[in-house]
Amino acid sequence: MIECRIVLEYGSEDMARAVFGSVELDNRGFISGKVEDKRIVFEISGENPMSLSHTINDLLACVKAAENSLLL
Q: Which CATH class is domain 2-70?
């Protein structure tokens, strides 16, 4: 099992919560995450490097889409 931790920092706790809320449902069961002040902390694991890479790429694409929609 390979594990990865991703920490994303925002300008406010409200923004962090909004982004997290936008991606949380899609990631339940695959990625654990939480909001800590102005940060989102994701814990990701995979059976192999390719699986982990795919999960990370998917997560970051969803985060970017959430950020873009919230900044409009």
A: alpha beta
Residues 6+ apart with CB under 8 A from 28: none
Is-contact 8 63, C-beta < 8 A?
yes
- Where exactly are the structural domains of the chain? 2-70
26-54 pLDDT, tens digit per residue, is: 777 779 999 999 999 999 998 999 999 99
Tokens, residue 62: 């969803």
Is residue 53 within 8 A of residue 26, CB to CB? The reply is no
- The span from the CA of 52 to the CA of 25, in Å, is 19
Question: 67 and 19 in contact (C-beta within 8 Å)?
Answer: yes
3-state SS, residue 12: coil
pTM of the predicted protein model: 0.89
**29: helix, coil or strand?**
coil
